[in-house]
Structure formats: structure tokens, C-alpha cells
Amino acid sequence: MRFSTPAVLALIGVLCGSAAGAACGNNASGFNQWKADFARTAQRNGVGAAGLQALANAQYSQTTINADRNQKSFKYSLDKFMQVRGSATIIAQGRKRLARDRAFYNALEQRYGVPAGVIIAIHGMETGFGGFMGDTPVVSAITTLAYDCRRSDFFVPHALGALKLVDMGSITNATKGAKHGELGHTQFLPGNALRYGVDVDGNGRVDFYNQSDALASTANFLASKGWRAGAGFLEGQPNFAVIKEWNAAKVYQQAIAIMGSEIMR
Question: Which residues form the Transglycosylase SLT domain (predicted)?
């Protein structure tokens, strides 16, 4: 099962202009009015009763705004970034995970063309292999960012995606993720989760807090962004550009490529 139906693809293509009636803001004072306006946009884009109730229950997340204004680690040098993010531990644990679950990762590579090292490196970088998947309610975080004037255009489709995920039962209003609304083992933004989610265990529900679904969805994302099976992924090689689709920070891209390569040595 995948979420990538025509209706979902149309939703992901929603522009901020469709939410023109919902005025952005830079503090909590206008959030409730924005939610009321945004609910009409959500309804027009197929959000159902559960998603609308989650929107109504969403709270302005000051911790999300604070995190958005204070992203320091991406300004580090590569060496410093890898040290701070625990690259040596990720590589060591990643090798053990690959050895233990090689059949699973081989199956992912056969289906999507993405090698184990890259998937494992992302998993380790994002949540310490699921050790900490966030403490901020996803719906509140992502709607706060959609309301916030700084990057409203970018986050509006992800807010709609989160509400659709509630409708589908993949998350609830109480589901917690990272400060920017990223969710699950590899920290998908909700719109991407909606579009690229894969139910690899066949239970009829895409669950990003299930490791198998999350890793298969990650491989599907990279494949959909143009990953070339068998091509290299270090900086300067063909697939390095696809890692950029996962995270826009150069130092992050370099770290994933290096760790992924080391994990498979």
C-alpha cells in the first residue's frame, strides 16, 4: 500500500495561495483565527472530520518557533558536525544492524535501488535508530509553521498532509515528532510521509513509527527523487544529488554519504 494516489498528489501540489484567507502571523495571538480560516482550506482539499478535529485541537508551539530560529548545527564544519551528531557511533551500530538484518536491506535495495548504508545512515542520523523520535505534537508543530510567516508557503502543504494522515489513521492529534513536525524513525515531513509512505509489512496501514515501514518509505522517497541503482553516492557522484532532496544542508549531505559508505565497508 502506498499513499501516492491522484488525490494525494493533488494535495501535495497545493500552493499557499489556496490558503489566502488564512493570514500568517509571528506570534500566538492570531493562531486560533488562522486555524478557523485554514479549516476551510483543509475541507476544500479533502480533509475529513478527524483531520479537522486535530486542527481544532492544535496548539501554538512556541518550542517549534524557538527551534526554527536556532538551527546552529548545520553551520558547523563537516568534522564538527559529524562529531556532534555521533558519526562514529552511527557507523559502528550501523554495521551491526546491516549484519543482523542484511536480508531486509537487500530486499529494499532490490526494490528501490538504494543501498543499505544510506538508509541506515539516515536512520541513525535522524533518530539514533529510533531511540528518540521527538517530543513535540506533530499536528501542533506543523500547523504552527504553516501559520508562521517566515516559511508559510513551504509548510502549508505539509500541514494539510498531517491532517490527511490523521484521517487515514497513520497519526493522531497526540502523535509526537521533532520540533518541525517531522515524524517517525527517519523524520518524514508529513506531506512527504503522505506521498511516499509504503506499507511494507502489509498490515493495511503505513506506520512511520514502525521501523520497516519507515525505512521502506525512505528508500521509496529516494528512488522517487531519481536514485540510480548501482551508481555512487559520495560527493561528486550521481546519487549525491538525490541525498540533497532529503536534507538541504550541505554538511548533512556530506555526513550521510560518508557514513553510508563506511557502514558498508
Answer: 31-231
